[in-house]
Q: What sequence folds into this?
């Protein structure tokens, strides 16, 4: 009994130390990932700006002041004023708020629907033929043209922009999830679950779905970035969020007519847009390296071979 109790007592700390080692290894890899840290810092600043936008400025995004129209950056108006005397900084941070809202909503909706379609297509051959042919049909249209067509049918507002962009990105997510689920479906433990009588839905949601989360999370960061860019493009073309709403795309459209004389109307909203997209891309690249160690080791091997 004494020997058995000693073995049990020594087994528990060993198990805990193994978990601690894995946790410490993950933390070290996280801190050593410069792309992830840089992108995370940029996104934290962007999220903070969007969250506390009303506290950063005493002005309202639709507040007009014809006397102050087309004034350059000053202490009162950090980013200057536009052609209606509205504060550009106020409109930019409120526009950033709309962009983050649209990007987040599109990412969540398209990720959920794409995962559902991909898992069903990988599990049922009949649904696979039907759902994948629909996705192929959506892939046949350029994304911006398909978004414009959907907006023309639904009408310009924030909700319809989210619907249009979600329709665009669902097929790509479904393809990625399906390809990963097809690999998982053929694993030995899935066959063992089937032989033991596990239901198809149990296998799909408790075993196949968790194994598709890694590529899905990485893809979600890029969907977030492209959604923000596409929303700005739609608003710039007049098919997105209608004016005078403080959208970054609307601000770029207002500034293009006076870009030579009032550069601040275009430069500052454009910088915020670029900074947000760069932060998301850096975060996505870093997250891919963190969740896929083989990709990182392959990159390291290529660098050593090049040297």
A:
């Amino acid at each position: 009994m004494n020997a058995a109790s000693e073995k049990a007592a020594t087994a528990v700390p060993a198990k805990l130390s193994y978990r601690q080692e894995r946790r410490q290894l993950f933390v070290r890899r996280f801190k050593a990932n410069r792309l992830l840290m840089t992108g995370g810092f940029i996104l934290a600043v962007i999220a903070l700006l969007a969250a506390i936008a009303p506290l950063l400025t005493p002005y309202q995004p639709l507040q007009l002041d014809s006397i102050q129209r087309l004034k350059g950056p000053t202490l009162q108006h950090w980013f200057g004023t536009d052609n209606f005397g509205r504060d550009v900084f106020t409109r930019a941070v409120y526009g950033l708020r709309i962009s983050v809202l649209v990007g987040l909503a599109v990412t969540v909706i398209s990720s959920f629907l794409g995962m559902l379609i991909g898992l069903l297509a990988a599990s049922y051959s009949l649904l696979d033929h039907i759902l994948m042919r629909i996705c192929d049909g959506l892939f046949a249209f350029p994304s911006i043209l398909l978004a414009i067509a959907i907006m023309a049918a639904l009408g310009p507002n924030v909700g319809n922009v989210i619907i249009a962009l979600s329709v665009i990105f669902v097929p790509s997510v479904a393809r990625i999830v399906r390809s990963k689920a097809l690999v998982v479906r053929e694993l030995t433990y899935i066959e063992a679950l089937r032989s033991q009588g596990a239901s198809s839905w149990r296998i799909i949601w408790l075993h196949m779905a968790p194994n598709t989360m890694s590529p899905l999370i990485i893809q979600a960061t890029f969907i977030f970035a492209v959604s923000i860019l596409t929303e700005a493009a739609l608003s710039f073309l007049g098919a997105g969020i209608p004016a005078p709403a403080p959208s970054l795309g609307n601000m770029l459209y207002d500034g293009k007519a006076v870009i030579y004389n009032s550069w601040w109307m275009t430069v500052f909203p454009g910088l915020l847009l670029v900074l947000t997209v760069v932060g998301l891309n850096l975060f996505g690249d870093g997250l891919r390296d963190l969740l896929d160690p083989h990709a990182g080791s392959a990159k390291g091997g290529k660098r050593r071979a090049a040297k």
